[in-house]
Records
---
Amino acid sequence: MRLAVRGRVSYETEISCRVAPFLQAPHTSRMDRRLFLHLLQRTAVTAAASRMLDGSALYASAGPQNPANPGESKRPQIAITMDDPSVNVSAQMGWQEANERILGALAGRNLKAALFVCGMRLDRPEGRSLLTAWDNAGHLICNHSYSHLTYMSRTSYEEFAADFLRNEPIIAPYRRRKPFFRFPSLKEGDTAEKRDRFRTLLKDHSYRVGHVTVDASDWYVDQRMQQRLQQNRKAKLEPYRDYLVAHLLDRASFYRQLSLDLLGREIPHTLLVHYRMMNALFLEATMAAFEKAGWTWVDATVRMKTLSSGKSRKRFPQERVLSGRWLRKAESSRTASAGPAKTTPMKSRRWTRWGCEKLQDH
Ligand SMILES: [Zn+2]
C-alpha cells in the first residue's frame, strides 16, 4: 500500500506555532539565575551530570567549522540516532520503502546518523540488505543487544552479557560498525553489581555507552497511528505527523532548557527516535521543523570518555545511572533541592498518551 502522504511532506507552520518556541526560553521563575545555578552546583547530581556530559557518549559533533552564517554556530545542535531497525515495519509499509524514505531524508541534508541494531529483528537475508544500505550511506552501525532484554530484575548479568555478545556477529561485517552499546529501554541494571559487571564487559570489548540526551515517545505515537490505519486504511495521517513533530520539539526544548539550567551552557544533544513507519513518513517534516525552531542538525560522531572512573562512580548514586534518562532523574533531584524549576514542566507519558488518544477519532 502506498500512502497518500508519500513524497516530501509539506510542513505547515501551524506546528511551530503550537509549540512554545524554545528560543524564547520560559524563564518564568523569579529566582535569580546565579543563585539558582549556585544551588545546583552544590548538588552531587549536577557534578555527576557535568561529568557525564563532558564525556557524553555518542554525541553531536562540534558542528561546522566555518559556518556560512556566523549566527549558525550559536544554534543548538542535535544529532539523530535511530533504534530498532526491522524488516517488519508495518502492514502498510515494507522495510524497503521505510529504508528508502529514512535514508533519503538523511541524505537530503547530507546528515550521518547512528543506527542501534537489535539482532533478532534483522537476523535474515533482508536484514543484511537493510544494514548494507545504511553502511553504504555512511551511517554508524551500533549494538543494541540481540533480544532487547531489559536489564532489570528478570534479566541476570549472564543472560544480558550473552545477549550483547550474540549481537556482535550481526553488526560485525559492516565497515561503519562502531563499538557503541545502547541499553534496551535505556536501563543500565537494577543493582550496582550488575551495572558494574556489565560496564567491565563493555570495557573489555572496547565498547562505550551510546547515551541519549533527548528521548521521546515516538514509538507510542506510531503505535496509535498504526491502530488507526487498521481501522481505516484511508485515515488522515497529517494530525499524527503534527502531533509527532510537536512532541519531539517539545521534548528537545525541555531537555535543552534543563541542561542550560543544570550546567549553565549549551551541550550537543542526541535525539533517540525509532525505526518506525511514522518516522519513515515524517522524518523530513521533523527535521524541517527543528530547523525552523532554531536547531542545527549535526552528524552523530564518536566522542566519549568513560564516565565510570572510580571517583565519579562513588559520587554518582546508583539510581541515577539506571537509565539513560539522566536529565529526568536530575530534574527530580534539582527541583527538590533548589526550589522552583525554571524549566518547562515535564510532560508525563500520560500527557503524551492522552493527547495522542484524541487523534484516534478525528
Ligand atoms: Zn530499543
Note: The pocket of zinc ion is lined by residues 83-84, 118, 144, 148, 184 (CB under 6 Å).
---
Amino acid sequence: MFRLGTETAFEAADRARALEATGRDVIHLEIGEPDFETPSNIVDAAKRALDAGWTHYPPAPGLPQLRSAIAADSTARRGVPVTAEQVLVMPGAKAVMFYAILALAQEGDEVIYPDPGFPIYESMTRFVGATAVPLPIRQENRFSLDPDELASLITSRTRMIILNSPANPTGGVLTRDDLQRIADVAIEHDLIILADEIYARIVYRGEHVSITSLPGMPERTIVLDGFSKTYAMTGWRMGYAIVPERLVVPFGRLIINSVSGTSAHQQMAAVEALMGPQDAVDAMLAEFRARRDLIVEGLNTIPGVRCLLPDGAFYVFPDISGTGLTGPQAADRLLNQAGVSVLSGTAFGQVGANHLRISYANSRERISAALERMRPVLEPLLV
Ligand SMILES: Cc1ncc(COP(=O)(O)O)c(C=O)c1O
C-alpha cells in the first residue's frame, strides 16, 4: 500500500474549503471538472430510467444499448470501426487506467508515462510493482512530447506507453505526425498504448486525432474516454474503455471481481448523452474558449509568468520561474494571501516544479477577480 500514490487535487480542494469555512472568500481554480450542470436532457433520461425500473444488476461489461451507442460515437469521431463488444462501461474513466495497468503491467515491466501527467498513471504503475518511466513534457515543445526522446526510453522491458491528449495538466494536444511516430515505435517494439482521451471533445484548434485510428494500432490500443468532462457528469462516475478483442474477457472479469458493473439507470442516461442533442457540449466549449483566452492574456501580463495558449482541455500550466517562486511556494501563497486556489505543477510530476496548474472551469467574473488577486502576490517578489 505504501507504493500507492494519490491525486493531490482532492487535498488542495479540501484545504481551500477549510479556508472558506473560516469565512474567507476563495476562488476555486484547482478543480478538474466543468462548473456547468449536467444538461437537463441527460438528467431527465436518468429519472425516466429509474421510473421505468432500471434498478437491477446490469450486464458486467455494460448495457447493450450503451455499448452500441459508444461504439457508434467512437467510430464516427475516431474514424476507425469499433464494435459494441469492444466497449466496456465502467464507473468513471479512472477505472480504465486502474484495470489496464493492473491487467497488463507487473514486476519487471516498464511503463512510460507523461511527466507532468495525471498522477494516477505513476501511482498505479508503482502499485502493481512495475517501473514507472517518466517522459518529460516541456513548455519549449508546446507541451507535446518528443518522439525521439520517447524512443530513447524504450528498453526490452517496456510494456506500455501512456498518452494523454488533450492533456491534463498542460492542455497540450498531440499532432497526427507525433502520433504516427509514437505508433511506429509501439509497433516496432510490440507495445501497448493506453490512450487517455477523456478531453477529446474539448479541442480549440484543429481536430482531435486518436492514435487508435492509425494503421496497426487498434489491436494494441486501449482507449480511455467517458462522460465526466464532455457532459459535465463528474459526479455520475461514468466512463468506458475501448479495447482490442483479446482484452474484452479479462477486462470483464476485472469488472465482475470488483464492482459488478455500472449503475443501470445512469447507463440509460449516458445513451441519451451520446444520442441526444449536443448543443450543450458546443456551448460549454465556446465558453471554455473565452475563458482560456481571458486567463492566458491576464497571466501573461504578470511579470515573471509565461503562459502558452493551450489547444485543448480546460487547464493552463504557466511557467512561473521568473517570479522567483517555486510551484509549491506560489500555490501556497496564492491560497493563503490571495484566496486563490490553484495547484502546484509538482502535483503532476517533477518536470512541473516551476509551474502552476490552473483550471479555468470557473466563471469569467471569478477568473478576472482571481487574476487581480494573483498579481500582487506574484509581482513584488521580482528582484
Ligand atoms: C487525464 C484524466 N484522465 C482521466 C480522468 C478521470 O475521469 P473520470 O472522472 O471519468 O474518472 C481525469 C479526471 O480528472 C483526467 O484528468
Note: The mean pLDDT is 96.
